[in-house]
Amino acid sequence: MAGPILVVDDDNFFRQLASDMLSRKGYLVVPAASAAQALDAVAHETFDLVITDVVMPEMDGFGLTAKLRERDPEQEVILVTQRTDVKGSAMALSAGVAVVLTKPVDEPDLLLAVERAMERVQLRRERSQLQNENLEFARYQNIHQRCLEFLSQPDLEWLQERVAAELAAVCDAQSAALWITDDRGHLVLRAYRGLLDKQFLAERMSPDGPLGNRLREAMPWIARDERSPVLYVPFVNGGEILGLAQLSDPVAGDFRSEHVRYAKILGDSAAVGVKNGRRMLALQRLGLRDRDTAAYNLSYFTDYASKEIYKARRYGRMFSLLTFSVDNLPLVRMRLGVPDAKLAVRGIIKAFGRIVRDSDVIAKASDQEFYLLLPETDFFGAMMFVRRALDAVRAEPEAQEVEARLPLALVGGASTFPKDGEDFDELVHRCRRRMDERRSSLQRKLMLDTLPFWDEVDLLLGNASSPKLPVEENAEPSRRGKVSDVLFDELQAEIARELMRDPSSRGLLYVGGPEIRADLPIAQGLESASPEMASRIYLLGRRGDLDSHPALTPVFLEGDERMARHEFILWMSETASYALIQRRGLGATWGFHSSDTAVVDGLITRLQSEYDLQPY
User: Fold this and answer.
1) DSSP reduced 3-state for 523
2) Is 614 helix (H, G, I), strand (E, B) or coil?
3) What span, in angstroms and rounded, lies between the C-alpha atoms of 15 and 32?
4) Quick check: 65 and 52 in contact, CB under 8 A?
5) What span, in angstroms and rounded, lies between the C-alpha atoms of 125 and 137?
6) Is cis: bond before 418, omega within 30 of 0?
7) What stretch of H or E contains 223?
8) What 3-state class would DSSP assign to 372?
């Protein structure tokens, strides 16, 4: 259907005459008495044709034509005038008007000129539509090609990077972030690019509540805030939430409806690509496992570690590498036989498998050495995992069956990227150094792992006539003997200062004594600490005048005479390990102190077991 026609003339008679002629032929006509009224009309409505008089007050027809062409260079204009010198004149041609009618205008001439002008409008409209359709087809062809790449590439790491880049490109967004669902169903940040600051991006999100409901609709949506509109693209396949993309900082200042359509197409293909990539990874892992233990082989592990190092460098993340060794496996094989040696190794791997996440990788480096890679795990978390792993092995029936006849000398070490190194060899070297420290530790030399907490305390404290402690080679020193009466208080104050300097550092601190009091240095030093402090701090003893504290957890132990006679500090963090145990006597304080990580870890483990304290 033809669009409206604007008739502009200061002569009311001609406006009415032209309107009547055109209306009888079915055209919609809008009259205007001046160029100013005409410009106001075109500001609110689009006209296929403008018929204007040449001679008008204030602005003539040529001036109006120039203004109209500024808005739309292809605007159809017919000039009407009483002057006979206008038609074909240089002024008309320079204005781009080929049709000039002379008043009085014959109806057939007017209708013929209008009909031809409207035909030109229709041809241009069809040509523009065809061009848009061709461009849209080309866009969809391009998007289709990108979708095929998502579906044909099984490498998840490549896919995550590419999806973020392609979504940003087709939606004209300068920034993009991508979360992929992990094995526990949480959305984990996997890629980001552009103008985004990582500290403002959530590392992990739970797809529950309103967010989960919105994601399951499987349709992109636009959220608007004060800074910039944000386009969210869910990745959903078969009702399963596989990921979420966030696009922001659009080049044109806003997202358009076609951006939502393109994002939907790419998001659906990306969801299938992620699902296929996970299946391919599972198949690859099945073919790369050791036949006896089901652990991955070293070739796969090193390749996986190199990808994890790349991700950690690219996105400023961390991960931990753990090494475990059954030092006496050759002795087990010689004394008990090969089947029992294999049984012990299977039991160890089975124990590890019960406590790892799906994203963690276990590999068999040799007959007696194993590697574990723990993504998104800091050094403190790695130390806690070593402890859990050793406990899990002791509880594994297959390992217990062998240990009943010959104890397994299992030792573990941990290192963290980038704290301990920035390549695989450096991290392995650091793990092995820490394993050597544990081998030469007092914990192993005195076989303290088999003792209850208070028996271990008595052995470590000894007395003046007790033999000297064994010398620790390549390990942190441990000492027993007389200690300063103020050491217990001074250490609490120093640890409190250290915790306040870095509240985000993770750690575990136990302070035990006869009574839990508000004047303890650790309580006073952390009085202004935030309840969100990352370290966990426990006070153990008889109830005193401290019932609550923003950063401390009191553990009331009434009637325990051993607590009444001893004081201790057990501290383990990412940067420090320290133990102080002391027994006050007549005129002197007898104590034991150590910075041996294995000893400190062992004491904490036995203390937690003794009083049923929750492990970290």
Assistant:
1) helix
2) coil
3) 8
4) yes
5) 18
6) yes
7) strand 221-224
8) strand
Copy the structure tokens of residue 455: 């028996």
Tokens standing for residue 33 = 């008495």
SS3 461: helix
CA dihedral 145, 150, 152, 158 (to 10 degrees): 130
Cβ contacts of residue 281 below 8 Å, gap of 6+?
A: 154, 156
- The CA dihedral of 342, 346, 348, 354, to the nearest 10 degrees, is 180
- Positions of the chain with pLDDT lower than 70, given as ranges: 1-2, 84-96, 98, 133-138, 140, 225-226, 282-292, 464, 471-476, 586-587, 615-616
Amino acid at 335: R
DSSP state of 473: T
CB atoms closer than 10 angstroms to residue 595: 16
pLDDT digits (tens, 9 = 90+) for 25-73: 889 999 999 999 999 999 989 898 899 888 888 888 888 888 888 888 8
The neighbour count for residue 316, using CB atoms within 10 Å, is: 10
Exposure pattern of 490-501 as b/e (b: 16+ CB <10 Å)?
Answer: ebbeebbebbee
Calpha distance 58→37 (Å, rounded): 12
- CB proximity list for 43: less than 8 A, separation 6 or greater: none
Overall pTM surpassing 0.70 (yes/no):
no
Q: How far is CA 476 from CA 132, 503, 576, 599, in A?
A: 74, 26, 11, 10
Beta bridge partners of 412: 324
| CA proximity to 264, closest of 293, 236, 301 | 236
Distance separating alpha carbons of residues 275 and 240, to the nearest angstrom = 10
Tens of pLDDT, residues 584-599: 776 678 899 999 999 9
Structure tokens at 249: 């900082």
